[in-house]
Structure formats: structure tokens, C-alpha cells
UniProtKB/TrEMBL annotation:
One of its GO terms (biological process) is endoplasmic reticulum tubular network organization. The chain crosses the membrane at residues 40-65. Keywords: Membrane, Transmembrane, Transmembrane helix. InterPro entries: TB2_DP1_HVA22. It holds the Pfam family TB2_DP1_HVA22. It comes from the Eukaryota. This is Receptor expression-enhancing protein. It is a multi-pass membrane protein. It is found in: Membrane. Belongs to the DP1 family. The lineage of its organism: Eukaryota, Metazoa, Chordata, Craniata, Vertebrata. GO terms for cellular component: cytoplasmic microtubule; endoplasmic reticulum membrane; endoplasmic reticulum tubular network.
Length: 141
């Protein structure tokens, strides 16, 4: 099972990531808008697949790794156009209807993360300053 798992990871790395990355590079280089769109849809679906995979990897169903490889091949296939189908039927309509809420949430998260970073930055500077003063007073005494 371990060998098969490692083999599946290698196939997924090659066919799910490296081949699409190189094809994306070729699309950017050629400036073919249709290829841009095709590969952008793939990467969006692949990102969602990778996110869902974190949860589904807990359940080792029979032929689980084979199904994952088959799914990635289906996404990539120019005959099935799997990533395009999933993007157009599910992802685009869902994101379009929730876009305002998502943008608002991301904006709030960005603001909160900036505030948190500033808060911990100030705290860190205070700790460093206190440590420097303590070290300096130990040297003087």
C-alpha cells in the first residue's frame, strides 16, 4: 500500500501539477487567450480539489488513489474538458453569487491581519527594547 501511495503521489505531481504548470507557461508564452482561460479554470478546480483532498484523505476508500488519479486525468483531458465543465457548472455560478460576500470577507480579513501584525510588531519591539535595557543595566552594574 505504501508503494502504491507513493506511486500515486508521483503521478499526481507529474500529471496534476508539473504538466499543467508547463502547459500554463506555454499558454502565457503564446499569449493565446483561449489557452489562458482553459488553464486558469484548471488551476481553480485543482486548488479546490487539493483543499477537499485534505478532508477526503482521512477516508481511505477502496481504489481511493486510483480514483484521485482518474479525476486529475479527467480534469486535464481535452476530450472530457473536466475542469471546464466543473468550473462552468459549479464554481463560476457559486462564486458569482457569493462574490460580494467573499470580497467583503477578504477585505475584513486583510484589515484584521494588518492590525494583528501591527499589534504583535509593537509587542515584539517592546519586548526587544525591554531586553536591551535589561542587558544594558546588567553590564553597567
Amino acid at each position: 500500500i505504501i508503494f502504491w501511495h507513493d506511486c500515486c503521489i508521483s503521478y499526481r505531481l507529474i500529471f496534476g501539477t508539473l504538466y499543467p504548470a508547463y502547459s500554463s507557461y506555454k499558454a502565457v508564452k503564446s499569449k493565446d487567450v483561449r489557452e489562458y482561460v482553459k488553464w486558469m479554470m484548471y488551476w481553480i478546480i485543482f486548488a479546490l480539489f487539493t483543499t477537499v483532498e485534505v478532508i477526503t484523505d482521512i477516508f481511505l476508500l477502496p481504489f481511493y488513489y486510483e480514483l484521485k488519479i482518474a479525476f486529475v486525468v479527467w480534469l486535464l483531458s481535452p476530450y472530457t474538458k473536466g475542469s471546464s465543465v466543473l468550473y462552468r457548472k459549479f464554481v463560476h455560478p457559486t462564486l458569482s453569487s457569493k462574490e460580494k460576500d467573499i470580497d467583503e470577507y477578504l477585505c475584513q480579513a486583510k484589515d484584521k491581519s494588518y492590525d494583528t501584525l501591527m499589534h504583535f510588531g509593537r509587542k515584539g519591539l517592546n519586548v526587544a527594547a525591554t531586553a536591551a535595557v535589561m542587558a544594558a543595566t546588567k553590564v553597567v552594574i
